[in-house]
Amino acid sequence: MADIESVLKESRIFEPPSTFRQAAHVKSLEEYRALYRRSVDEPEAFWGEQAESLRWSKRWERVLEWDPPFASWFVGGCLNLSENCLDRHVATWRKNKAALVWEGEPGDTRVLTYHDLLREVCRFANVLKALGVVKGDRVGIYMPMIPEAAVAMLACARIGATHSVVFGGFSAEALRDRMNDAQARVIVTADGAYRRGAVVPLKANVDAALAGAPSVENVVVVRRTGEEVPFHAGRDHWWHELMEAASAQCPAEPLDAEHPLFILYTSGTTGRPKGVVHTTGGYLLQASLTMKLVFDVKDEDTYWCTADIGWVTGHSYVVYAPLANGATTFMYEGAPNHPEPDRFWRIVERHGITVLYTAPTAIRAFVRWGEQWPRKHDLTSLRLLGTVGEPINPEAWMWYHSVIGGGRCPIVDTWWQTETGAIMITPLPGAIATKPGSGTLPFFGVEPEVVDKDGHAVPPGAGGYLVIKKPWPSMLRTVYGDPERYVETYWKRFPGIYFTGDGARRDADGYFWIMGRVDDVINVAGHRLGTMEVESALVSHPRVAEAAVVGRPDELKGQALVAFVTLQAGIALNEGLRAELKEHVVKEIGAIARPDEIRFSEALPKTRSGKIMRRLLRDIAAGRDTIGDTTTLEDYSVLARLREEEE
Ligand code: 7RM
Hints:
Strand content: 15-25%
Number of helices: 20
Shape: globular
Bound molecules: 5'-O-(acetylsulfamoyl)adenosine
Radius of gyration: 24 Å
């Protein structure tokens, strides 16, 4: 009996377009394979060569020290990340190139050149120093998606302060717990943030959080929305006032390659937040190399990653990796449907976006809102599309490909995690043919495997647990303040091997297909089904926009399969449709996956980064109250509404 059974069949395949291939950094499958071979046969030589492309103030002595499960990369080397992102380019023709193009939700825009951005970063680095922040201190960042957020991150990196960005939509309690765990000395925030035309009271949340976070001595507040906010004399400072007084000269501090760059909290299911720690050299190297080869970034690109900086994708692929490559990174403050559902496409047209990187959850929302919205805009500037965050259902992939990409743009479906720091499994768009729903092949130096519960590799086509067999440069180094938890969470289940928590299968071409989180696997009469495949079967029905499946305890079968389904806009509910959807799943993948129950819902509970929270749906399906952590839930009203919608 397989650990996780695979039932989905998907046979479409898309070769890289030849014009794309010719101009790409990696141009053929043969080239990919040769480089990949070398990267895993001689990882230290490979990464050592790649690291030559960064600016080091002191060369490393050893590429890797591996004391399982603790890794040190570029041991003895010193560098500064902000110097690599800024000073390096300011010394070239890129000085006056746009580093950051920004659009606010109200439609205001700003452009910062590399020169501008360096000056802002230096000034804010001096502000932090003046507030007493020294190398090794932690700084909290709780901000809207405005340029100052990137400035604050880079300023921390410049002086060796470790930042901890907390998503601006999180509550005061979530912020308090994270600041306490990190023992942050300063928080950088704003008066408020625009979201769908309303104002999120960031400063008020900070005030509430600080009542229980005594380590924080100073708060720096950007004026964004202009609302009156209470000020605590001595503790609170306006960003613009401190910046006015600060010098624009600030030498980049040479930092050890293993100096902690940031702590990013992922909500564990219970209790204490889990602070994933990333360091400097290896992180920067893998983030910047993936940026170059996966997004095939060129100087002419205007690249837009839609993730919030409160998520790892925002750290790596909005801020650090694009800037390390001297690219133009575009940043948008607000919601995708404000004032109308065509906001993203309006932005693509207005700014001439060439590379777009977004999440499946957003794509499914666009499908649901209807293709009339993208059709209103000229999207021909786009040349490459990316997705991240969840498995993408083949139907959503096809829609993205044809409606947004005009059939001409490759799609890079990039699998990675907060813990991996950078992309791990992904197509290289000029080299690797894509299949809708597959992340395809491992990036250089990454050795993933699909294994059974005893850690043995499973044959092609079989489902199992996704693991990574060797250390990689941008891997997490520990859980902040809790190395035991680091070992326990990631390295215990398969001793000496990193466990991702995801289920996957590999097909006959060696392509990886992520099947969802292992904790979400549903056990129906002895068949262990991953969520992705059943959900994809539902989403392939023309009336379905999104689906989430969970198990509910069942005396006969172990678990019954409950599907929560969101329909396309404008579709009326009826009993016939329920039966039709059940039959559709049977036709697509077989009787074992037939949903026992279908519940229609206007929305599904999701995290801020768009991941469906199946844990909460399990409680609802079983009629239980939710006991677990809901602090990362995007829209609390969804839970109440779901409870009302009984079959
Ligand atoms: C970058 C990020 C990580 C989890 C991961 C998966 C899921 C992410 C994909 C994906 C299938 C993808 N960091 N995931 N990307 N599943 N295909 N391309 O998302 O720490 O927030 O989440 O997200 O389950 O383990 S994260």
